[in-house]
Design a protein that fits this description.
Blueprint: H1 3-11, E1 19-22, E2 24-25, E3 40-43, E4 52-61, H2 63-71, E5 88-89, E6 93-101, E7 114-117, E8 122-123, E9 126-127, E10 141-144, H3 146-149, E11 157-159, H4 166-170, H5 172-180, E12 194-199, H6 210-213, E13 218-223, E14 231-237, H7 242-250, E15 252-261, E16 270-273, H8 274-279, E17 283-287, E18 310-314, H9 319-330, E19 337-341, H10 345-362, E20 365-369, H11 373-381, E21 386-391, H12 396-405, E22 406-414, E23 423-426, H13 429-434, E24 437-440, H14 446-457, E25 467-472, H15 476-485, E26 491-495, E27 504-505, H16 506-512, H17 514-519, H18 528-538, H19 541-544
Parallel strand pairs: 12-13, 12-14, 14-15, 15-17, 18-19, 18-21, 19-20, 21-22, 22-24, 25-26
Antiparallel strand pairs: 1-3, 2-5, 4-6, 4-10, 4-26, 6-7, 7-11, 8-9, 16-23, 25-27
Helix pairs in contact: 1-18, 5-9, 5-14, 9-10
């Protein structure tokens, strides 16, 4: 069957086989993925009335998968689960095709329909993420039901048009996490909860607090002290002690908000749990003014990159770093210059190949460097510092180095998933004195992924451009090992329906397949045409034939 016809046939309504391959996870370590280093053969079930049977078409691998492999049942999203007796399955960056529909869902879904899965699922406010709590997509066919289709935000699936590439659809999820990093995920207004007001002894300034405190259900007052938390909101009036602000930060509840109201700097940097910025969405706001409410609101607390500013992405040569840079370069009103910093000069060279065409097309300036980043920032900002810094490397040293390069009113985004309990010293005086922002995000929302898919349909994004290597179902463990080793400077995608394709870089595939090489885009980047060639080579005839 030709490449075009195999790919076209695969797009048609699929049939369900009797069995399929699956990579279940039974504990810590890569050796616990599958059985004796091989995928298991598992039966394909018929959907119940509230279930869909889906075929998995593409799965992106993510460093978050590595965290689960290393932590096993101790991973935060597994809640102490005994994986030996109750295994899970990796694969949260996924796109699927509906094979069969349970009778209760027939008005909403139909065989042949394409879907992307939004994995950041919540049930009754509790994270039950796909690829973690809910077994994920490293399987050929599986059932999804109310755990995905009837959770807190309804169905955590997004329709995908039939002409969108499988890799593009799967990678809409990591792209959604990038989009989500610039949406307001923190709470930047007072809550109707428990509020602490910390006064400074001897401070006789007349603050306007009543309109803020009227929203609180319970108000606790203290002088130069932080009582036992957690508190939904903490308002600190003219504090001087960075250590006191640090203790207050630790007393914040999940999505807690700390408001420093002062016209003076603190006596030093604040020791902050930066893992809570990423996972708990704690927020730091502030104002110089006596009217405490001036610290709040979206206008005061931005999340988007500054127009005409200087952006730094730390860990720029990695897959997610490249996505942040691409987004910035493509923004109509984005930064004037984007600086990508990474210690690996070889990976930076590969990133330049991928991002260079976008730089030329958009007319923006891209600087990729492995040398003294602070000197580059100083040169590009005339000594002011970076307007925005995004840290995609899970390192305390990276966060503290980034903070030292930040402009007084800049924004620092802790994008990398540093564990809760990871502490770094930050100059939080910038927040109340100049309006600086410290933010962090984990995962994405359905709206973020819908926006990515819409941009892809409109030709504004090509998520597959981030791909560095691909493989068939058997290659999944090697792909996970490659993530651990940092073997590739881009995303790895597994195609569960393909067979006998070892984990291969695009460059290696192009070197041995002239048709594949010709189908790649500028800079050797992934395209739907390249995907079609790949399917022509590695899609078994039995799978290619529609039911």
């Amino acid at each position: 069957m030709s490449g075009r016809s195999a790919y076209a046939a695969f797009h048609e309504i699929p049939r369900a086989p009797r069995s399929t391959l699956a990579w279940n996870v039974y504990g810590k370590g890569i050796e616990s993925v599958g059985r004796d280093g091989r995928p298991e053969i598992v039966p394909v079930a018929t959907p119940a009335p509230d279930q869909l049977l889906v075929r998995v078409d593409a799965v992106g691998l993510c460093f978050s998968d590595v965290k689960l492999i290393r932590q096993g049942g101790e991973h935060a999203k597994l809640y102490g689960r005994d994986l030996a007796s109750d295994p899970t399955r990796l694969g949260h960056e996924a796109t699927v095709t509906v094979v069969a529909v349970g009778r209760d869902l027939e008005s909403r879904y139909q065989p042949g329909q394409r879907l992307a899965i939004q994995p950041d699922i919540y049930v009754n406010g509790r994270s039950t993420a796909y690829g973690y709590t809910v077994p994920g997509a490293l399987i050929g066919y599986h059932l999804i039901g109310p755990e995905v289709l009837a959770a807190d935000d309804g169905a955590y699936v997004i329709p995908v048009p039939p002409d969108m590439g499988y890799a593009d659809a799967a990678l809409s999820e990591p792209w959604a996490t990038v989009e989500g990093a610039y949406a307001q995920r923190r709470r930047v207004r007072p809550a109707a909860g428990r509020t602490l007001v910390v006064l400074r002894a001897g401070d006789d300034r007349r603050y306007q607090l009543d309109d803020v405190l009227s929203k609180a259900a319970n108000v606790v007052r203290a002088v130069d002290d932080v009582p036992a938390g957690p508190f939904d909101d903490i308002i600190m009036l003219r504090p001087r002690s960075a250590a006191l602000v640090s203790r207050a930060s630790d007393a914040l509840a999940f999505r807690g908000l700390l408001n420093v109201v002062s016209d003076e700097p603190l006596d030093g940097p604040v020791d902050v749990d930066v893992g809570r910025l990423h996972y708990h969405y704690v927020a730091y706001v502030g104002t110089r003014e006596l009217e405490v409410s001036r610290a709040y609101g979206e206008a005061r607390n931005r999340t988007e990159l500054r127009r005409g500013g200087v952006l730094v992405v730390v860990g720029a040569a990695g897959p997610m770093g490249q996505l942040h840079l691409e987004r910035a370069l493509r923004m109509a009103d984005g930064p004037r210059v984007a600086i990508g910093a990474d210690l690996d000069a070889g990976r930076l060279a590969l990133a330049q190949e991928r991002l260079g065409p976008i730089e030329r097309a958009t007319g923006r300036r891209l600087i990729l460097t492995a040398r003294d980043v602070a000197a580059v920032v100083a040169e590009q900002s005339a000594g002011r510092g970076a307007d925005d810094i995004v840290v995609t490397a899970p390192s305390v040293a990276a966060v503290t180095a980034a903070d030292a390069m930040l402009a007084p009113d800049g924004m620092l985004v802790v994008f990398a998933g540093v564990p809760v309990g990871t502490r770094a010293s930050l100059d939080l005086s910038r927040v109340h004195l100049f309006g600086a922002q410290y933010t962090g995000t984990s995962g994405s929302r359905i709206a973020d992924q819908e926006r990515v898919i819409a941009k892809t349909i409109a030709g504004e994004l090509a998520p597959g451009r981030a791909i560095a290597a691909v493989g068939s179902m058997e290659a999944a463990p090697d792909g996970l090992r490659a993530l651990m080793e940092g073997r590739f400077a881009g995303k790895i995608v597994i195609f569960p329906q393909l067979r006998d394709l070892p984990l291969s870089s695009l460059a290696d595939l192009a070197a041995r397949d002239a048709d594949f090489a010709a189908a790649l885009g500028e800079g050797g980047t992934w395209t739907n045409a390249a995907e079609s060639v790949l399917f022509s080579r590695y899609l078994p005839a039995a799978v290619a034939s529609p039911g």
